[in-house]
Amino acid sequence: MNFTQKSFFYIAIFTFGLSLFILSSCKEKELQAMHKIIKNSEDIELFLVKETPINPVEQDSSKTYLCDYEVYEKVFTSSAQLDSLKNALLDTTNYISDVEKKCMMMPKYAMRLKTKKDTLDIVFSDNPCAKAIAKNSLLKTPKIEEEKKKEDMFYVDLTAENTITKLIKSIIMKE
After folding, report:
1. For position 18, what pLDDT does the model report?
2. pTM of the predicted model, to two decimals?
3. Closest by alpha carbon to 68, among 159, 128, 149, 169?
4. Nearest of 160, 36, 27 to residue 94 by alpha carbon
């Protein structure tokens, strides 16, 4: 390779590395914000959701949606179960921040966590791989309600052995 080719090659590698760093630092900031809400949450609810998201414009106002997924059942939980779920959500070993899984999101479960100032909705998928979508009410952009966009949400990849979905499954089985 001549000097020009080498220069372009090194610039391309640097640009790629920089973009990976920027993407991972953005996800880290979102995870930190999410953890702050989880840690300070005063009210936690667990739900079962349908697998297909509904466009915000087409959502029925008489139904509950979390991250655009329709809730079809609220799961009643004890305070001990909620404490276990909160601890699992705060456990950073359940999350993957440096890799983005390329599998389809097919959620079954969702949680709503509330603080005095904020609400965090998280929808969990464990099949075909473990991932989650989170939506923080403070992330909402100042748009007309019918024009809500997917940018209000962020994706979080979970480890295959995460304790979050395992705990949710055990709670649902007991019910």
Report:
1. 36
2. 0.76
3. 149
4. 160
**CA distances for 44 relative to 1, 47, 80, 134, 142, angstroms:** 59, 10, 12, 14, 26
Q: What's the whole-number mean pLDDT along residues 81-99? A: 87
**Which contiguous run of DSSP H or E holds residue 170?**
helix 163-174
Q: How far apart are CA 158 and CA 136, in angstroms?
A: 18
Q: Is residue 49 classed as helix, strand or coil in its secondary structure?
A: strand
Task: Give dist(CA 101, CA 132) in Å, integer.
Answer: 11
Query: 138: which residues sit within 8 A by CB, 6+ positions away?
Result: 33, 117, 118
Six token digits for residue 61: 């106002």
Residue 69: strand pairing partners: 53, 66
